[in-house]
Structure formats: C-alpha cells, structure tokens
Amino acid sequence: RHQKDWIGLGLDTVDNGDQCLIFAMTRKNAVAWAKEAGRDVVKMLNENQRKELEKISKKILPKDSYDNTKLTTELAQAVKNGAAFHHAGLDQRCRTIIETEYKNRHIKFLTATPTLAAGVNLPARRVVIPSVMRYTNNGLEKISILEYKQMCGRAGRPQYDDMGESIIISKGYPDEILEHYVDGEPEPLESKTLDEDSSLRINLLGFIYTASKFNPTSYEKIIKFFSQTFAAYQLSNNSILEKKVTKQLEKLKEYGMITDENGFEPTKFGIKVFYLRIDPKTAFDMTGYVEDYVRGTKHTFGILHMITNLSEFYSQYPVPDKYQESMDDLINKNEKLYKQQNFSSDDCFKSLLILYKWIDAMTYQDMSEHFDAEPGDIFYIKENAKNLAYTFTEIVKFWRDYAKENDQKKIVSEYQNLIDELDLLRLQIIHGVPEKYLELVKIKQIGRVRAQILYKNGFKNKTALKKVPLEKLAAIDKIGTILAKSIKSQVEKVR
C-alpha cells in the first residue's frame, strides 16, 4: 500500500479507525514521514473530522504571528491532513496542542522521536519502530532494550483497545531481534554518582556541608557514606571508590570550597555553591571570569561566551561553515574583549550566535532560516543561559560581599557594576530583546514583537506612551483599542 512499510502499517491502522505511532530516529524523518502520510490520511477522513483538524491547524499557525516558522508551518499542514510530528524542536505550545489533540483522537497518525516514549504518555493502537539503529555521537548504534520496551509500551490505549500491537521493521535477522528485544530483559540501571566527576563533586560538597554542621567530618566518614551508595555497590571495588573520592576532594580544595585542617568542612564559598545546586567546577570557572574582569568594557559578548562554554551548558555545537561569516561579524564587533580574554574561534559555539541574535530581537522565523534553529532548541538554549546568568550573578555577589568584608572599596564598585550589567542581561535573555526595549517589555502584554513595533514608531519608553493619544496608540500594528487602554492605564502612574 505504501513504498515505506512503516508508513503503510500506520495507514492501515488509521483505515481501520484507530491511531498509530511511528518512531523516527531523527527529527528530519519524523517531519518527512508525517507530511508524507498526511497526503493519504486526509483521504480517510470525513467532513466533520476535516473541519475539526482545520481549527487545530489554525491554533498551531495563528495568522500573522511573528513566531511562525517553517517547522510550525509544516506541522500545521500535516495536522490539517490528520497527521502530526512530535519532537524537541517544537516549542511547548505546539507540543501541548499535538498531545491534547492526539489524546482527543483528532490526530490519527503521529510520528515522534524516542524522547516521547520516555516522557509523554501517548498510547496508540499500533506502534511501529522502523529501525533498531540510530545515529549517536559515536556513529550508528543499536537502541537499548530499555528504549525498545519504552516505545512498545505505548501500544494499546486502555480506554479503547483490548490489545495493542508493536512492530519492528527488520531488514534481516528477525530471530535475533525477537530474542534480543522482545524476549530480552532491559539493561540494569547504572548510577552516575561515581561515574561522572560533576555528580560526585556535587554530592561530596553536599555531604561535607551536611555532616560538618557542628564539627568537621573525617575522611573515613566520607568513605563510609559513599561506600553505602548504589554506585559503590555496582563498583564493588573500595580502592577505586577511594581514588575517585580523593581526587574530587582535592578538586574541591583547589576550588576553595572545603578545608581539611582539622577534618573536612566547607568554606563560605563552598556553602554558597552548595545552595546554588551547581557543579563546583562551574562556580570555579565563573570565579575565574570575575577575576579576569575587564574594566571599562561592556561584557555582553564575554558573559555569553563564558556561559556557552560552561560544562553545564549542554548545547556546545561548533559553528557550521555556512554561519561562520555571521560569527566573524560578531567577533569583529567585540574585537577588544575577544583579544583581551584570549578567546578562540573553536570555543565560539553556534549557541553563542543564537543567544546574541535572540537578545537582539531576531524573530523565530529569521533564526530558523538563518541558523537552522528550531523554536524548541531556542527555548532550551535561552532557559539554560537564563539560569546560568542568575548563578553567575550570585557568584559575583558573593565576591563583592567578600571584598566589602576586606574593605576593598574599588573592587566592590567594579563587582557591583558587573552585577548591574548581569541583571540587565538576564532580563534581555528572558524577554529576547536589546537593552533599549527593556522598559517597554515590563508593560503587561508587551512582548518582544510589540516592543519592537512600539520602538520603531517612536515610543521608546513609558513617558512617550503616556503622552500619546489613545486613538493614535490603538492604530499601531498589533496594538488595537483594548490593549491601548491597558497600556495607558499602566503608564498613567509614570511621573
């Protein structure tokens, strides 16, 4: 019925009045298969179903929205045909619509990446897994048994089906696949407490802080505690455990977060880092930036560069050749800071470019076209940056207060300037606007798009909005009478 077996199996399910879920190992395939299947699914729908899907499609793609991108346009068209795709590149609004309308049985054919199997409960009459191979950082690898079980666990809708079907498409070795995946036991869970340095550092600092509330704790107590963890049970080798713990204790001392003069206890800095719930190395790296603070220079580029290079920033992709010109322009604009801080083009990641354009109010559509940045990815990058900017502000505040205690007035002033700059930058990251728009986005219902429109029309602050006649304000694109009245009532308080 279809040249792609997995799409054919899905269409057969829809033709029988049921829903299907097809797992794609890449976002690109999820989109392509939903679009392809939709051309056939729409032929199976009645008039009422098509009308309902038309309404849902319009919710996904609001008319004249500045947030519309190629991806949301493709999704809206697929939904109009009764199909949809679901992956992390979609923003939360679109994902919620898809999940809701699939549960309402309006969407018949859904493609998704495996992340859906672990995080969202969207069961189907038939689940199809076109391949047990997927691309990773190490190349092509088999999916785990646990991942397979999570995917096939979506087969069967409790309120609609008395059974569910899970089908693997195999190009060969069906007996091996049956034995390994269907009859196999999921891989045992593995603790990351001792396996990852960052996790061990966080837990070590936490234990030392908790255990030394009244008296410093000993090395023996630390080892005893960690030897009772699930991680130590799996390791089953005390000498390796001691080596790992000793290594990270040395790191915590190097970072200035613990002392061991009469037993282990946290320093004031260590306590601050503990409450921030971050990897101690991240706090140490941030402290290094504070110490290298370049006086008399605006630090937006440097701060964003630092944030995107931290180990806790999880989107460190190199800049593809086709975007290198944009990155070169950004570096040239910040040449002084770039040279002073000894930055390298190798550590100027794609996410740095995206963040810089985000706070310059570049639209989702333009970022999608220029940098292949999908809305969900942009959201993740800016949320990560927002949280790390807050953490950095708290670190700078700690060292400012330390300088106060030591009567270092000049340094206190410099650190306060950096804190003020960070507060503004964090607001820019939250709202996605340049500093000049910040006063406007503080007004209710004025986001990055409306702020840009108001600014271009000459209304650069609340005072200007207070003076303008209501009728003139209402006539501006994307404002209207109701919003204009709301704006006027808010700015009337301005003196």
Structure notes:
Helix 1 (5-15) crosses helix 2 (27-41), helix 2 packs parallel to helix 4 and helix 10 (219-227) crosses helix 12. The chain is flat. Helix 5 (92-103) links the parallel strand 2 and strand 3 (109-112). The strands form three sheets. A five-stranded parallel beta sheet has the order 2-3-1-4-7, sandwiched between helices. A two-stranded antiparallel sheet has the order 5-6. It has 26 helices and nine strands. By secondary structure, it is of the alpha/beta class. The chain has four domains: 5-182, 3-Layer(aba) Sandwich (Rossmann fold), CATH 3.40.50; 197-277, Sec63 N-terminal domain-like fold; 283-432, Orthogonal Bundle (Sec63 N-terminal domain-like fold); 437-491, DNA polymerase, domain 1, CATH 1.10.150. The N and C termini lie far apart (71 Å).
Topology:
Blueprint: H1 5-15, E1 20-23, H2 27-41, H3 47-60, H4 70-80, E2 83-86, H5 92-103, E3 109-112, H6 115-119, E4 126-129, E5 133-136, E6 139-142, H7 145-152, E7 165-168, H8 174-182, H9 197-211, H10 219-227, H11 230-235, H12 238-254, E8 258-259, E9 265-266, H13 268-276, H14 280-291, H15 300-309, H16 324-333, H17 335-340, H18 350-358, H19 364-371, H20 375-405, H21 409-431, H22 438-441, H23 448-456, H24 462-467, H25 470-474, H26 480-491
Parallel strand pairs: 1-3, 1-4, 2-3, 4-7
Antiparallel strand pairs: 5-6, 8-9
Helix pairs in contact: 1-2, 2-4, 3-4, 9-12, 10-12, 13-20, 14-20, 15-18, 18-20, 20-21
Primary descriptors:
Rossmann fold, 495 residues, 4 domains, Sec63 N-terminal domain-like fold, 26 helices, alpha/beta, flat, 9 strands, five-stranded parallel β-sheet
